[in-house]
Predict the 3D structure of the following.
Amino acid sequence: MAVETHIEVTDLRLAYGHREVIHGISFDVRRGEIFGIIGPAQSAKTSLLRCLNRTIDFTPDTHVSGSIKIDGQDVRKTGSVYALRRKIGMVAPLPVGLPLTIYDNVAFAPRCAGLTRRSALAPIVERCLRQAALWDEVKDRLNSLGTRLSGGQQQRLTIARALSHQPEVLCLDEFSIAIDPVTTMRIEDVLKELRREMTIILVTNLTQQARRLADRTMFLWNGDIVEIGTTDVIFGDRPKDRRTYDYVQGIFG
Ligand SMILES: Nc1ncnc2c1ncn2[C@@H]1O[C@H](COP(=O)(O)OP(=O)(O)OP(=O)(O)O)[C@@H](O)[C@H]1O
Ligand SMILES: [Mg+2]
């Protein structure tokens, strides 16, 4: 299969006030790959994701330069920021459930987009809950509150919600930080399935998770790219940069 660029980042810089935290980075993400991003705390992993879907715009006094293109279209020059955010599903470290029923959590975005009929919404809700490997556990209680689910179930509900507007890119920011290893493995299996349908950007503090899932991984450190490589190189005996080896081996970070 030919390699196709889906997201192209060129000379991206980000400053909060006078403090630059992303220092002119360039990389691309290929269509249909799982692109891992690893790096110690404060490397600007979350900030990078926020530039991608432009939620960085909510923080006052931020300065962004360079470009991020999705399918050749610059996200900062796109007509509608809502159209951009529909293209990108975002899953945060802790589940952010809406105070609604399980059904309504997943139906929320499609309803905002104008779908109101149950006959149209119900199949979407079922598809997303199945994709997030939650359907079997909740299909008999779709009308109970999402907040009554366990932490791991709520995180899968968040994924279901992120899928409800059929994003072409799914970003996950340390999704497993608050869930047990068994649920983490279940979600990892979900991601392996989803990659057939979308591009996945996986920010993780668990280097072994990137090793298990990512096609290529970027090591970000203090807002600079140390190295981008395939999983065998980054996690092998001889990555290009000694710092990658030390970080992956747990010598620092
Ligand atoms: N809203 C903000 N205002 C000012 N500075 C911020 C803001 N958000 C993040 N920063 C700074 O930007 C830098 C990168 O933070 P960011 O949260 O992107 O890193 P991270 O790699 O996601 O870290 P972690 O692994 O802890 O989640 C940090 O030095 C942080 O203090
Ligand atoms: Mg972060």
Notes: The chain has a mean pLDDT of 93. Residues 45-46, 173 surround magnesium ion (ligand 2) (CB under 6 Å). The chain has ten helices and ten strands. The domain at 5-248 is CATH 3.40.50.300 (Rossmann fold).
